[in-house]
Amino acid sequence: MDAIFAQATASGRAGVSIIRLSGPQSHDIASKFCNIPVIGKAVLRSVRDRGGKLIDRGLVLCFDQGASFTGEKTVEFHLHGGLATVSKLLSELSECHGCRLARPGEFTRRALDNGNLDLNQVEALSDLIDAETEAQRKQAIMVLDGHFSELGKVWKKNLLRAVALLEASIDFSDDEIPTDLHLEVRSIVEGAESSIASVLDRSVIASKIRQGFTVAIVGAPNVGKSTLLNSIAGKDVAITSATAGTTRDVIEVRINLNGLAVTFMDTAGIRDTDDDIEKLGISMSYKRSEVADIKVFLVNDDQDELVATKGKSDLIVLNKADIREVPGLAVSGKTGEGVSNLLNLISNKLLKETPTDVVAIRERQVAGLAAANTFLAKAKELLHQEPLPYELASQELYFACTQLDFVFGRIDIESVLDEIFSSFCLGK
Ligand code: GDP
Ligand code: MG
């Protein structure tokens, strides 16, 4: 197997950049460039090209097989983070026999192949690296830390016991079967089903945390939607004007709202118009605000007719609080009055539903768990029949286990790997 190398840190100017080299021969290859230190000790070394000229001085750290991220022998070079320094060592490494630049995600792929991470942890690692907010980070680290995989192991172990109990009864004669056996099987199946269901319940919100929530500001023309968006963004992203019908596109701003990724959308004011472009903008406003997690109805008066149907999470907010006395929830995009209050209200609404324990985040996981539960529901039904169809029930449980194996990456792993690793960048 080739040794692979790549810059592990982001490319660009930096105090320190790390170049990672992994593979059975990595220690030998590294020895061509410096006197490598003992395993596990970061030591300052002169790193020289193969002609003996100094490239840089930096820390060199060797990992033994079985004790590195990839599970292979690995060497890290911590050099000064200049573009030229890094590319010099990369080009020297590429000249070495049996040594090549890693493909995107290849370090993680080797960690997976060597059993250091499972499929869910690989996805979580990708999420952790991409995490922009605290909620995203918490969610990803929980899965990376193995909590989701642990849950899978418990489900699988219990269901296998249920299968074993059913299979054993098939071999018994009728009068030998313990009478309460089906009760234990039923309780195992019900337990697994409700545990999976609770993970599934929270998966919608979990995937929102990963991808971000959306909040649409909607209302009649000139109520101050664009001004409010600019105030939330802290900069002018939308044109504001006293001329009605100024905003025609949906303008988006993504912010970190108390640890949540939230995209605020400014929309075209909703009114009757003959202007074709404005009409398009208005129809886009409707479409986008319909799928938003929260709509903020900005109004002149709380008796005003709303421009769309109000959902249970939506908020009605009075505008232009700087020029008048208004009761209730009111903001001024112009002065910023009430804006942080509005933002807190929104983040509380979103955070209230945020799960704090293990969740299924990816479509792949959700689909597999839902399929497993369909089989468990069928098994449950069979377990209530008399006489009990042991073989059929056992078969459904077996199907459920197979679905869990898809989710936890024990079977058919190849078919999903390409998709997963295509989202990784070089050096991961
Ligand atoms: P939109 O059509 O809803 O996007 O409204 P704009 O944000 O473009 O604002 C329409 C007009 O109302 C502009 O002249 C703004 O300066 C004014 N305006 C917007 N928000 C406020 C506010 O909070 N207070 C005051 N006094 N004027 C505002
Ligand atoms: Mg506007």
**Uncertain stretches:** none
**What is the CATH T-level topology of the largest domain?**
Rossmann fold
- Architecture of the largest domain, CATH level 2? 3-Layer(aba) Sandwich
The protein's oligomeric status is single chain
Please provide a written account of the structure.
- The chain is α/β, with parallel strands linked by helices and 428 residues long.
- It folds into three domains: 3-113, Probable tRNA modification gtpase trme, domain 1 (Gyrase A, domain 2, 2-Layer Sandwich), CATH 3.30.1360.120; 147-207 and 359-423, Four Helix Bundle (Hemerythrin (Met), subunit A) (Up-down Bundle); 213-352, P-loop containing nucleotide triphosphate hydrolases (Rossmann fold), CATH 3.40.50.
- It has 14 helices and eleven strands.
- Strands 3-4-5-2-1-6 form a six-stranded mixed β-sheet. Strands 8-9-7-10-11 form a five-stranded mixed β-sheet, with helices on both faces.
- It is flat, with a radius of gyration of 29 Å.
- The two termini are 18 Å apart.
- The model has no long low-confidence stretch (mean pLDDT 89).
Summarize this entry quickly.
The protein has 428 residues and is of the alpha/beta class. It has helices at residues 26-31, 83-94, 106-113, 119-130, 134-144, 147-171, 181-201, 203-211, 225-233, 276-290, 339-352, 363-383, 390-407, 414-422, and strands spanning 3-7, 14-22, 43-48, 54-63, 74-81, 99-101, 213-218, 251-257, 260-266, 294-299, 315-318.
